[in-house]
Amino acid sequence: MRILLFIIPFFVSLSVLAQKDEIDFDAVDSLYREDQFYINFTYNSVRKSPDGFDQNKFSPGISLGFLRDMPINKDRTLAIAAGLGYSIASYNHNLIINTSAANNQYSIIGEGVDYTTDRLTLHFIDLPIEFRWRTSTPENHQFWRIYTGIKLSYLLHDSYKYESATLNIKSTGNTDLNAFHYGAYAAVGWNTWNLYLYYGFNPLFKSSAQIQNRSIEMSALNIGLMFYIL
Fold first, then answer.
1. Any domain includes 15
2. What confidence tens digit (pLDDT) does each residue in 122-181 have?
3. What value, to the nearest 5°, has the Cα angle with vertex 90 and ends 165 and 69?
């Protein structure tokens, strides 16, 4: 009986405390953050390409990752975000990379040469850092946005494939490729759908990669769509 007299008041007091501290799931979160997963799909083109260079097939790219949102004003319409991601970029072109020699040899495929594949594929670990402006509110998470920033990328893996009736080349680990890449990007749009542009600042290849004693200075210019997922 003494135990019962102790237990009953104990549980009554817990019930009172629980009612006082009951969570209101409908309350407005004025300290919200736009932490987001992202995925983008791009068409990969290049700037400063060598004479005669041509991208004769669609060159796709895909990136995915996560961004941590850090608001910097009271209305939380301005923020800094940093994240981590992974991307794959493919380039279909008419540049032959012949790795059979002691030093890689680069040349443009001549007119009339019949080939089925000439593709360079690059895999990166990405570190995006961006400044964010948006029209979001605590009650509405469908909003206009302009996100701009820089992206630092490290080349994890590369592969090259060329196939024709007379020559087949497959190679990986091209030391003429730059290991670190950096550039600016912007994502502009409404809610989930956003236009995306990336402008690479440094070349894809080191100065050791040359055509007719001229360095291959081409760098990335990627255009596509960015999707943010809460």
1. no
2. 999 999 999 999 998 888 778 899 999 999 999 999 999 999 988 899 999 999 999 999
3. 170
Q: What angle do CA 72, 74, 78 make, to 5 degrees?
A: 40
Task: Please report whether residue 147 resides in a domain.
Answer: yes
| Average pLDDT of every residue of the chain | 87
**Nearest C-alpha neighbor of 128 from the set 196, 179, 174:** 196
Task: Record the tokens describing residue 106, joined without a space.
Answer: 């680069």
8 Å CB contact between 203 and 219? yes
Encoding tokens for residue 75? Answer: 């209305």
CA 130, chain centre distance (Å): 12
Domain containing residue 125: CATH number: 2.40.160
Q: Is residue 137 part of a domain?
A: yes
Domains contained in the chain, number: 1
Q: Is residue 11 part of a domain?
A: no
Mean pLDDT of 39-48: 96
Domain coverage including residue 155? 35-229
